[in-house]
Write a structure and sequence with these properties.
Low-confidence stretches: none
InterPro entries: AP_endonuc_1, Endo/exonu/phosph_ase_sf, Endo/exonuclease/phosphatase, ExoIII-like
Family: Belongs to the DNA repair enzymes AP/ExoA family.
Organism: Streptomyces hazeniae
Shape: globular
CATH superfamily: Endonuclease/exonuclease/phosphatase
Radius of gyration: 17 Å
CATH architecture: 4-Layer Sandwich
Order of helices and strands: EHHEHEEEHEEHEHEHEHEE
Helix content: 25-40%
CATH class: Alpha Beta
Largest sheet: 6 strands, mixed
Number of helices: 8
Keywords: Hydrolase, Magnesium, Metal-binding
Strand content: 15-25%
Protein name: Exodeoxyribonuclease III
Distance between the termini: 5 Å
Strand order of the largest sheet: 3-4-2-1-12-11
Number of strands: 12
Structural class: alpha+beta
């Protein structure tokens, strides 16, 4: 079995004070993918930076206090790669991958955007550069007899079922037609060739949402977005047996505005 959890921690230092440490200690996962770490290694307490029984690798952003991704693995990685070969994003704290026996696992924090701003332009540049990398990663892995799993905060809701208020968000970043079409390409068997594992296991379900704004009563009303994905190559996706979101029991029990998303694969 292989169990992988992905979660945007919304600042690892803050999450550690609110319950992340206790959550990780109880986790059954073999791999944990973190996004929006927002800290350098030396800014983290030792128990957070190098948790017991985990191998931890980090890719912080060169802009302090922003982005940052990490991977925690039970087994020591065979190889670690930061970035995906595009200079603008190499030190942006947006992509990190490791090779484990038979599988490459990546933690992704795709930029969020805002229509009509430089942030949206950055997001579009990232998407344009990242899709060719995903294609190549899949091809290289297949040639080596490996599978691929890219987990993280993709900052795009793919379908109407992936966010509560989809009608009001049709012109907003995160649910733009061109962003959703880009995910279509990622998931097209003749193009990117990846599978959205959670949706494949829950094809008719609304959500399950993985992010809720801290504003208003979004969490209490389950007015959320499903933007945290586990995208797998077909051979690995076919082995998926369970996928679920660890939604907190109450608003005050949350340690991030995102919830952990876990997928379980058979051997």
């Amino acid at each position: 079995m292989l169990t992988v959890t992905t979660v945007n921690v919304n600042g690892l230092r803050a999450a550690a004070r609110k319950g992340y440490v206790e959550w990780l200690a109880a986790a059954d996962a073999d791999v944990v993918c973190l996004q929006e770490v927002r800290a350098e290694r030396d800014q983290l307490a030792a128990a957070v930076r190098e948790p017991d029984r985990w191998h931890a690798v980090y890719a912080p952003s060169s802009v302090k206090g922003r982005a940052g991704v990490a991977l925690l693995t039970r087994r020591e990685p065979e190889r670690v790669r930061t970035g995906f070969g595009v200079a603008e994003f190499t030190d942006a704290g947006r992509y990190l991958e490791v090779d484990l026996p038979g599988v490459t696992v990546a933690s992704l924090y795709l930029p969020s955007g805002d229509v009509g701003t430089e942030r949206q332009e950055e997001k579009e540049r990232f998407m344009a550069a990242f899709l060719p990398y995903l294609r190549g990663l899949r091809a290289r892995a297949a040639a080596d007899g490996r599978e691929v799993l890219v987990c993280g905060d993709w900052n795009i809701a793919h379908r109407e079922a992936d966010l509560k208020n989809w009608r009001a968000n049709r012109r907003n970043s995160g649910f733009l037609p061109e962003e959703r079409a880009w995910l279509d390409q990622v998931l097209d068997p003749a193009d990117g060739g990846y599978t959205d594992v959670v949706r494949a296991l829950h094809p008719e379900e609304t959500g399950p949402y993985s992010w809720w704004s801290y504003r208003g009563r979004a969490f209490d009303n389950d007015s959320g977005w499903r933007i945290d994905y586990a995208m797998a190559t077909p051979g690995l996706a076919d082995r998926a047996v369970k996928a679920y979101v660890e939604r907190a029991a109450s608003h005050d029990a949350r340690w991030s505005d995102h919830a952990p998303v876990t997928v379980v694969f058979s051997a």
